[in-house]
């Protein structure tokens, strides 16, 4: 039985619809791979969220205050979720555009189908009393009407995510083809700048942890805390560069088990830090009294809001990774729920970590901690794991583990470099070599171009907070907030979904915030944030 306004019987022909799906599947370029359940997706997203920012936010809270920090973090989380739903919808529309291209290919190969569609359309027009001009529309218009009807009648299949379309290529798909090349290039530029910044912050963090681990191990072995930390740090930067360089040419697709081990160690380290800080906080409260401790806690220092804001953008600004995270999810309709669960879980965890950090170390007067297990503690450090360097447990083994575990992220540097290199290659139109023959001139030059700047930044500064403030405050904010907004609007236009009569149509992963009110909210937040960031950093 046909639905009201239905013109073509073939729009519900299952054999034909399967042919469309098969053709769309054959056109995919980035296969999704193994599927993941919602719980696995939550863990996958949490693993990305609980990286660098978990180590840098406690210091941010110590500068901005507990209440302001929690409020800023929640606001960034809420806005990031809104724009994450934009990314989810844009991803489904990108796949729908491929599906419609597949439809046209199949129809092009079937002249008898085109004629049948034309005849059915003419019959519908005659029966509905349309004028002669409507009856004489060419076959091309008939095919366009048929494609639109399939879109309405077969939304689940048309909007199914069949391939990962990353943020840069997504912008290229819907902007360059419509003549807006500058916008597409701007999206690529922001993604590349943000990934460079992330790699730089990662390089600083990894090498800071390596140098402190070396000094801690030396102090433990020789009972002498004298250690030229700056010299050790510089050596670590150089060594890590030469370790990661060859890995950028290796096949890292077979490192899943290693990644799982790193993830497990990360969660163990977080659990230990939270447990130790809670224990020390409880001891301080028991000794000084809750009222006295509460009076010493920083609550609201608006002049230092960038200490949290930049970190919060880094934390929740994972939108350029979302296509890889949600594409394998089954059922795909659970993507918003999985993202919200991961975001809220991370928020609760980080506020808990920061709150216990402020109570546990708020009474310390030393600016830096002792490298030697059993030495003196200190105020909250820019890298929070360094607060645990003096822990005496298990002969110093716990302290060394907590000090060194961020260094395990050295395995992420080649992945970040490869991602940036591939994004730049796509942007510049450079063909990537065969993975089995990676040592081409272009590939070597591009690899050095993406790997050397973060190492140079790491040699220049150990101030990871400064890197995060500038990169997160501008490129990160744009990638996480503005780019998804722009893409969902342009994707809707590309698929003819912006007309008034189609605004209320339901389809998989349609953003509930994709309306005028949602757009205004996001734009106002973005502009206000840019103004405040600029004022804080430069005036």
Explain this structure to me?
- The structure is a single chain.
- With 539 residues, the chain is mainly alpha-helical.
- It contains 21 helices and no strands.
- Helix 3 packs across helix 16.
- The chain is elongated.
- About 1% of the residues have low confidence.
Q: What's the arrangement of secondary structure elements?
A:
Blueprint: H1 14-26, H2 38-49, H3 52-64, H4 66-108, H5 111-127, H6 132-135, H7 139-153, H8 155-158, H9 167-175, H10 181-222, H11 229-247, H12 256-288, H13 290-296, H14 306-316, H15 322-326, H16 335-361, H17 397-404, H18 412-428, H19 441-460, H20 464-494, H21 516-538
Unreliable spans:
132-136
Number of helices: 21
Our estimate of the beta-strand percent is: under 5%
What is the average of the pLDDT values? 85
The shape, in one word, is elongated
Main sheet summary: none
Helix content: 55-70%
Distance between the termini: 67 Å
**Chain oligomer state:** single chain
Element order: H for helix, E for strand: HHHHHHHHHHHHHHHHHHHHH
Given helix and strand content, the structural type is mainly alpha
Q: Can you describe this structure in just a few lines?
A:
With 539 residues, the chain is mainly α. The chain has 21 helices and no strands. It is 69% helix and 0% strand.
Write out key terms for the chains shown.
mainly alpha, elongated, 0% strand, 539 residues
